[in-house]
Write a structure and sequence with these properties.
Elements: E1 9-14, H1 18-29, E2 34-40, H2 43-53, E3 57-61, H3 69-78, E4 86-91, H4 96-105, E5 109-112, H5 117-128, H6 136-148, H7 165-175, H8 180-187, H9 191-204, H10 210-219
Parallel strand pairs: 1-2, 1-3, 3-4, 4-5
Helix pairs in contact: 2-3, 3-4, 4-6, 6-10, 7-9, 7-10, 8-9
Protein name: Response regulator
Keywords: DNA-binding, Phosphoprotein, Transcription, Transcription regulation
Organism: Microtetraspora fusca
């Protein structure tokens, strides 16, 4: 996935608590290179604003009235007009089902609301640059949630038709949580080669980012929970 375009990173804030929205706005707007383009008090409003403003990043609460953050994320990430918008889920609820649901809906990051301000700004920078914010703790919760799901709910390995043996190897390493640099060292190839493989995997598996690739690897049986 490519990074956002030149200029300030445009951020939309979606949370049903006005005080939190105000706090997030103040934090984002005082950071260099970031600007807030709107605030939403529920999921439906977030979807509407995202379609109108085309933000680079949406800071999305999960539990909101009218429409929750996971459904709003699914609609934003699934719509052609907001295909370039990336969603960071912010929640007070550190629950496995939320992690899995949010990532399956297309979210590129997942943070708890008690994350320090510097951590939130760093997350915006990571996701805006085109990568996914998938910390080891989140990966563990994702794997644990996937392990509890029945076998019929998992996609068969045939979904990897068209993926080369080398790409499968790279996908497996991504699912282990390795960075591009670590993958390059492990396979004794260049960074450019790894980036090419990752790009092809994103295209072939119709994945938005590394978070989606991790899910695809587990659902295809390349890794066992």
């Amino acid at each position: 996935m490519t990074a956002v375009s030149e200029g300030p990173v445009r951020v939309l804030i979606a949370d049903d608590q006005a005080l939190l929205r105000g706090s997030f706005r103040l934090l984002v707007e005082t950071a260099p290179g970031l600007t807030v383009v709107g605030e939403a008090g529920d999921g439906a409003e977030a979807v509407e604003l995202a379609r109108r403003e085309r933000p680079d990043i949406v800071l999305m609460d999960i539990r909101m009235p009218e429409m929750d953050g996971i459904e709003a994320t699914r609609r934003i990430c699934g719509a052609a007009e907001t295909a370039g918008t990336r969603v960071i889920i912010l929640t007070t609820f550190d629950l496995d089902a939320y992690v899995y649901g949010a990532l399956r809906a297309g979210a590129s990051g997942f943070l708890l609301k008690d994350t320090p301000p510097s951590g939130l700004l760093a997350a915006i920078d990571v996701v805006a640059s085109g990568d996914a914010l998938l910390a080891p703790s989140v990966t563990r919760r994702l794997i644990a949630e996937f392990a509890r799901r029945p076998e019929p709910a998992r996609r068969p390995a045939s979904t990897l038709d068209g993926v080369t043996d080398r790409e499968r190897e790279v996908l497996t390493l991504i699912a282990r949580g390795l960075s591009n640099t670590e993958i390059a060292d492990h396979l004794s190839v260049s960074m450019a080669t790894v980036k090419t493989h990752v790009g092809r995997l994103l295209a072939k598996l119709n994945a938005r980012d590394r978070a989606q690739l991790v899910i695809a690897a587990y659902e295809a049986g390349l890794r066992s929970p």
